[in-house]
Fold ATP-binding cassette domain-containing protein.
Amino acid sequence: MIRARALRKTFGDFEAVRGIDLDVRKGEAFGFLGPNGAGKSSTMRMIAAVSPVSDGELRILGMDPTADGPAIRGRIGVCPQEDNLDQELNVFENLYIYGRYFGLPKAVVKERVGELLEFAKLTEKAKSRVEELSGGMKRRLTIARSLINKPDLLLLDEPTTGLDPQARHLLWDQLFRLKQSGVTLVLSTHYMDEAEQLCDRLVVMDKGVIVAEGAPLDLIRKHSTREVAELRFGVGENEAHADRVADLGERVEVLPDRLLVYTEDGEKVVASTHDRGLQPLATLVRRSTLEDVFLRLTGRTLVD
């Protein structure tokens, strides 16, 4: 569905995407994971055929976006990071008029709008103005609109940013159902749990390059330990205690508010910490996540 080789995007002297290679297969959910400024959105815009490639090779659905931009845009759906719904129209009209942009017959668009309203759980809001909708409803409407042309490929840029947990999980369920129906999903996110829940494969991007690629669980197994023991000492005391627990795990990361001890047995680390006379203000044992992978690869947390 997508093939990129040595793909680059520059803005003047700034190189946002610095020669990346990637392949996206039909029917999978593929993710771009990374902090703001990593190059995710720049890559997504090139894939959407709305931002020209600065250098390298890019093929979308087997086509060249430079020569076949309109044809590509007719077969993909795009859910932008910011909702750009028409505030002057109601929910039904936002879908209907957008569908007419694709040249679909009126009867086909009307039927498709009904299906999408049901999919997005917005049937009862069909005549409501956009400004009357909650944030979650607006996001569902934006995704529904991106599906009006029955796309082969759906691009989602930070699809759940700003939503509460309930709204996020509802969207995850809808995206999972889309994937099951055969739609290829490509999403960018800086939420680790979102990437783990939705993505079959992903790339971790940082400063315009790909620093890791693979299935979420494979990346965690390769770059982290089974568990992490979090030890919270007083403000300014975490770094001072790092050397005293360094031998309890495979490695230790010092964060401003806590120490992370990477280990196969987190409870043993906590017990050993207390045996040494150390008294953390709080402790937590958890499994490793993609955030730990990113921390290992780049030396900083995902959200910065």
